[in-house]
Amino acid sequence: MARICKKKPAVCTDEPLSNSNVCQKMALLRSILSTAYGPTGRLKQIHNNVGGHVLTTSTSTALLKQVDMSEPLLKMISTAVQHHTARYSDSGLFMGIFMLRLIENAQKYNLRTVAAAKVYKHFVEECNTYLKGDSCGCKVPVDFTSCDSLIALACSMITSKPACMLNSKETQHISSLIAQAFLYSIPCNSSGVTCFGKTVTIGIEGQSVSDSSVFPGLLVDVPEMLQIVDLKRLGSGPYKVVVFNVSLSGDISEIGDVALEIHRGVDPEHDLLQQLLKLGEQVVKDKVRLFACQKVVHPILQHYLRKHEVVVIERLGLALMEPFVQISGAQPVASLYSSVPAEAYGIVKGFCFQSCGSRELLQLLPSKDAAVSTMVLCHRNETMLEELKLTCQRAEHVLRLTLREPYALLGGGCTETILATHIKHMNQSKGATTSAALCVSQSEFLMAAEAFCNSLQSVALSLEHDGQVCLIDLTYGHRWVQDIFFKTCGCGLVEDRSNLEKTPLNTAYHTFSPVSLENTDSHPRILDSFSAKLNALNVAVEMANFVLDLKYVIKDIN
Amino acid sequence: MQEECVSLQVCVSVVGALECVVRRCLGPDGGSVLFTRDTGETLITRHGQSLLNTLHLQHPMARMVLDCVCAHAKATADGTKSFILLLATLLRGIEDSHMHRKGSWSIPNLQNLANRLLAVSRKELDNIVTHKITPYASLYCSHHSYKLEGSALDLLIGGYISGRVGIGQADVLKRVLSEFYHKVNQDQNAVETISFIHSNFSFLHTPVTGLPIGCSEVIEGLVVTCDWSVWTEPAGSVKALILYESFGASFAAVGENISVCIQKDYMHRSENIMKQKLASLLDLQVRVVLSSVRQPESVLQWARLNHVSLLECVDSAQLDFLSNISAAETLSYPPLQHLVMLKYCRRVQLGGHRYACLGTFSHTHTLVLCAPAPGLLDQIVCVSQGVFAMLQHLSESFCQTQSPCSDRSQSTLSLQDLWGGIMRAGGVLPVGGVFEFLLHYFLLNERNSCDPECCRLLAEALLCLPRTLYAHNHRRFLNFQTHFLDDLKEWDKTKERESEMPELKFGFGFNESSASGLESVSGKKQLLVSVLQCLHRLLCVGAVLHTRSPLCAGPQTHSEEEEEENPERSNSTKITDA
Fold first, then answer.
1. What is the residue range of A164's domain?
2. Would you state the torsion angle of the CA atoms of residues B27, B30, B31, B33, taken in this order, to the nearest 10 degrees?
3. Chosen from A84, A261, A546 to mutate, greatest number of chain B CBs within 10 A
4. What is the ipTM of this complex?
5. Structural domain boundaries, residue B414
6. Quick check: is A360 in a domain?
7. Which of residues 80-119 of A touch B (CB under 8 A)?
8. pLDDT of A186-237, one tens digit each?
9. Do B259 and B307 meet the contact criterion of CB atoms below 8 Å apart?
10. Which A-chain residues 219-278 have CB contacts (< 8 A) with chain B?
11. B229 and B113 assigned to the same domain
12. Could you tell me the end-to-end alpha-carbon distance of chain B, in angstroms, rounded to an integer?
């Protein structure tokens, strides 16, 4: 019996937000996140003090996953951001910075928790209505008839991840690849409920980024002993396919961890091999040209099959099973003791060798329009490749989200400034009635409004890391950088002209309703995911309210 | 063996320490507590009971209080924080009165007082609640029915959750919970619906992280938190097989240390047996298989070939629940198989996960609760569960009081509008200290009370609850009190004259704008009784003996396993009367 030990009483922290240590740590986290934000964000290198793997990144997912928070409060904030990015793949840093700013500002203005929470909640609902409404000035519809907005969305995702280390030409190349892979993953001419296809990503190290490409179908490692000559001998497609998802190694291990007692004269392994060969015979008789197995195939069976001009792919792995089944239409066979049913066979249109940089790969072309493609990404070293792989996967996910809500938000900080301007404008007309409805005093309401708008604008401010002054124009409410080389605003929608009045961000300016630009030929260069940002905005406010609400931290030290 | 004397001061300081933690979390303006473990778990809560449980209280008296609180919470699911506050104030009240009398409270004196207080709770309290407060509440509700927008149920839920979740989330949660109740109820017996939801809540909700609480919803059917291993869209209603064991030969179930004797054709034969079993399923026209364990790959292949949907690794308790609610037919062979008819089978996407959704012929719905992070989700789930526990207690106590009168009218009434009926019968009052003010007033003005001292003690202590609720705005508390007492006096006068009732002005709760919630009178009364019982237990303790031998006190004997789970009990403590 385990020794019973006395439990130690828990450690309590009273009013965690008034504890300077906690605040300091929170400010540190905020500065880590905000310095990593945007295209010119500074990279963070994470390594532990005993050596080992070094990670260079600026994405919230990688950053927060690797960094262990000592403070329970921060741990909770970090978890919330990670859960958001797991779901939406974007706007994690935005959420983190915005949330921490909301908390800081509420303290700075010395707001009552209840007042701050009520007003924040009210404003985020205001933002939701504005963003979902038709008159929204910071939302553009995603046009599926051309690739432009899809590429712009993907491009903004990649440029905001500086750890990918891409130049502008490479960025363009990769963004078009992402858009291409996304288009491949949408099944055509299907009716009813359909699912997205798969995009398999293969990374190749030490190759130039421009060698990256997208292939329809599935790319797998070339099986041993397969020569181009062998493929030529097969003739032209389509080819019959069979795929197994049980081990064909001939071991009797699947019974489990039990002692085996074997009668004299019985040789189960030999029997099993005979059975495998019987299967092989049937497969050859059924004119199968491609024999695939998730696990290991017995060498004798392999030899037999090759002799009869069947291409054998073994150790496909669980991850590739689903795309393989999709492209071939075959059903995985699990039974060794009965003949392969006719329905289980599938078809591929053809094979060909593709050499991607240093690696030779075998491409399997789908028979029907199966929505499977393989993206081969090349980069100079492992760290950058890892970041690029993740970024591409997330960017594709963001593109998929546009199908549900076919909008994108203006990037480059413009959405934040427009939202802040809109809220300030709303407050001017409705402030008094709203504060009465929320049961907070007028002054509290105004201060909380200021805290909210200030937090939004400081997210826009965090995009700038080189000491340049951020401006907001007083007509459209877009974000600008004081630089003679920039002729457009942050998102690229508005062009500069001499009579456009601008003022530094987070300074006092008169309120105005942001004019939305209509009938313009210019397209925004930088776009953000609509769904991701909307969710980030809501979750950030919810989390900020939770944190402000905390009166006690109890730490169990057992 | 160590002996530790327990005096009134010790009790006051122990309960006072608990009060300090709890008072910050009381009411809608209170805050919440973040609880963390070294394992990285975090939990956010305003829930009084879990709060006290997390503290790992050491002092035996504190643990005794905790036991009382838990017993109370188990019955009513409400009022744990008020419990501690009230207890602390009562103890302080007793201490103060001792100062005034300049005499000393000897142990017998204290015990005597405790007995008298308990007697008050039995006699006067019952009397006041039945004859004063209930008519008042009933009158109030009939006067204000035009103002009480929404049904009484919404207000009850609102009153319960307003002090338990963060600001702004109460509205969303209230809407979803009330929608859930109505969809499950479908004009059936409300009492049965509540007890059904209450006892099966763990199967009827699905938690989702990463989304704001506003995304919570109610969806039709029973959601199972795993995805179909084999999925073919079945058309319309289907026959499903519920299964608790693997089709293949599994030796794990037999136990360890076994050896298998392999004969010729062993594999071949075992596969044939499986094939026969599967073929018999097709004869039964089973289109869906729900299994609590993993099935061998060959079963998956069979399912794919025969267009049967297969769901693996379902929680077996949930499968039991499913077979209970949909009148399963049990197959004679093999054991532990049930056949159920399902209205439909679907795939749902919740928070980035694909789950299975099973439609049953009884109106099953699933409550999908969302929160940004797991710690917050626990709070939301806990509150939602608490709502139904509270409603269960309310409906039970209402039925108890009603049944002796007339069975027939009650049953028709509960079928129509249980919650409206409770409201009209005076079973509920607005939140925000109305009950405490009323009881305070009536206790002080009780003319034929046999124990005025105890009544006064109790009456004064009661006010601590509204005082804490309005802690941020003391002027408002005083305002509220004066207005309320004026109204009450007016009401008393008019009642004697039997003339027209004056407008009752109170009940604006915390927010004058938003409709205030309601709370159950019986729950409040139960709270008071529990507090007084706990006080009685506390005051009767003379000394604490610390022993090293295990305690086996009557029926509460803990088994060894249980003891391992609760090691804090191991430093056994005996509380004795001096």
1. 143-207+382-405
2. -60
3. A546
4. 0.86
5. 144-220+367-424
6. yes
7. 80, 83-84, 86-88, 112-114, 117-118
8. 887 666 667 788 899 999 998 899 999 999 999 998 887 788 777 788 878 7
9. no
10. 245-246, 252, 255-256, 258-263, 266, 268, 271-272, 275
11. no
12. 15
